[in-house]
Design a protein that fits this description.
Blueprint lengths: L3 H9 L3 E6 L11 H6 L4 E8 L4 H17 L4 E3 L3 H10 L2 E8 L9 H8 L2 E5 L21 H13 L2 E3 L5 H10 L4 E2 L17 H9 L4 E3 L3 H4 L4 H15 L4 E3 L3 E2 L2 H10 L21 H10 L4 H19 L2
Parallel strand pairs: 1-2, 1-10, 2-4, 3-4, 4-5, 5-6, 6-7, 8-9
Length: 324
């Protein structure tokens, strides 16, 4: 239970989770989306695939997700515009868009960016842990952006897709900040200053992200936090706030619904998930903790304006600036 005052702030805020992982299969069960609605979340971005996934699988997952959302229109709205998100909140529904973790699903073709955008993909990161044809990944980071990667960012800017640099290597992220003419985000990355990990990000990366007008989404993964408590997540939020201001931090829990699917991914791709770097990968903060974030921030004396920005207003601002 949270205090009445914190609950009122939570209810008035637009609550935004910028990255969530549901099963990546053509028969995916999305019934657990109700957990987000039940926690006062108004918008969530669902991952539809990663660099390791085949184009065929991604298309079937995307078809399934779109079908589920439209066939449950009493509860969910496919968010193609910012207006859709605001109308969903007003109607008490959950707005949903999609994201890609890596640019390999483009198949090396820039025309695929507008294709995905038209289907509801509103953000994409260029590389998932490993180097690829567009960018260095955080687990290898032998390269920065390639010429193709720079072209990808320019096309994303043109189309209105948010450039996300989570999972990318240090050099590639810093180059992305230079190339992009629109705000760049870390949808689900935590500060290395609190816990050292190859997936976490440096103060320099956080500051460079903020300079673009972007936002750092704090995730709830045990490996990257050192636990999954709401207090730890708020500690990470405050770390970013102290570096760059409250307007540049938000939440991207990266909650994984199907734990067995994650186990299979990690065991099947040791090059992408080096075993020595992933020890607590099955521990996640859960959607039900969103009200606790509000309570803790309220207890610490932050204003409703600051809290509402962290809960979702900051990512909403990015969408207003980028989505077409």
């Amino acid at each position: 239970m949270i205090s009445q005052q914190a609950q009122q702030i939570h209810d008035r805020s637009l609550v935004w989770d910028t990255h969530a992982c549901f099963p990546l299969n053509p028969n995916s069960d999305l019934s657990e989306l109700k957990r987000y609605s039940g926690s006062g979340v108004n918008f969530v971005s669902l991952n539809i695939g990663m660099d390791m996934d085949s184009f065929e699988t991604i298309m079937q997952v995307l078809a399934r997700f779109r079908s589920y959302i439209t066939s449950h229109s009493e509860s969910y709205i496919l968010a193609l515009t910012v207006k859709d998100i605001l109308e969903a909140k007003e109607a008490g529904k959950l707005a949903i868009a999609f994201d890609l973790e890596g640019s390999e699903p483009l198949l090396g073709n820039l025309n695929m960016i507008s294709f995905y955008y038209d289907l509801g993909v509103r953000q994409m990161l260029l590389a998932y842990n490993k180097d690829n044809r567009a960018s260095g990944g955080c687990m290898e980071s032998n390269i920065g952006l390639t010429d193709f990667g720079r072209d990808v960012i320019r096309e994303m800017n043109r189309v209105g897709m948010v450039v996300d640099v989570s999972h990318m290597g240090y050099r590639a992220t810093m180059e992305a900040f230079e190339v992009s003419t629109a705000p760049v985000i870390f949808s689900h990355s935590n500060p290395n200053g609190l816990r050292e990990h190859a997936r976490n990000i440096s103060d320099e990366q956080i500051k460079a992200c903020a300079k673009t007008g972007g936002v750092v989404g704090i995730n709830g993964i045990g490996d990257f936090l050192g636990g999954t408590s709401s207090e730890l997540i708020v500690e990470n939020i405050e770390y970013v706030m102290n570096l760059v201001g409250s307007e540049h931090v938000g939440i991207g829990l990266d909650y994984v619904v199907d734990k067995q699917e994650l186990i299979d991914y990690i065991k099947g791709h040791p090059d992408v998930f080096p075993p020595e770097k992933f020890n607590d990968y099955l521990s996640f903060a859960e959607p039900e903790q969103f009200p606790e974030f509000t309570e803790l921030l309220h207890q610490k004396g932050y204003s409703e304006q600051v809290i509402s920005g962290i809960l979702g207003g900051n990512f909403l601002r990015v969408a207003e600036n980028v989505w077409k």
